[in-house]
């Protein structure tokens, strides 16, 4: 069976083709892509509804479905959930539709060689209700699935996989899949590639670079002005390294290190995009605490009379900038300094907790909490 694939190199939006599995059995997407690798790229996007229809979603109807609820599978790194908690495993059920990105115009061919003869591969159909992924994990590959949820219904998932064939750069859709973000989304979780502004829902990385010193930068966007409580959590993981090391969530805004291997991390956020607030690390918590203790001792905060606050560091250093945030991460003051000791009148601060982020002349960035009296 053959299907025409359209592609317009002058319009990247015209590379997407919606096709489906025509057989009464499941097909292996990896085998299908490899058989048609001159025509299609190595990723498949499955729409999986979670967000209710809305007037704000783009479309031709009064109520339209969100385009942010896509589950994604890449042949090199694996799959990630979309609108719900279930993950595509590369086996596409009978009648299942999916989007594929074309790399050339031509004809894609379905053959019996890509069909699955077992009784378990045909039980995942992505729309609203699906069964869990049944593919056996490869213990030699380290993969981490991270969820973002909220108390008002947000669900986002990303996958970072250390797999053969991947580098820490952009390796194309077979390993690195961009996140679909349409207007009016509530929140987003994604990962970064250095010197690349793309937001990734799946990121393949070089397995040789996975060590206790590895840092995974997480991007987060909040568009909701109404209060929401967000939570990061580990959905699941595989691989010898990830199974034998604690995974910590570092929150730079609050100077906090939380063990995600033990429990989820909840937080609030102001509206905005935060590309440097959160990181996943594998560093021992005691070492992190010791380093923070040394840095925190470099800055002393003293509340004086008349709403004045003094910031003081070592005499051989100068204070360059001070940014004061509320507990939602909103910046309230941007202050500049020139000496090792600076005093400011902060009359607009109420009696509550604030986050103080100070940059020193030696490049050190110190984040401390201050309780305003």
From TrEMBL:
InterPro entries: Secre_tail
Keyword Signal included in the entry's annotation: yes
Keyword presence, Signal: yes
Keywords assigned: Signal
Name of the protein described by the UniProt record: T9SS type A sorting domain-containing protein
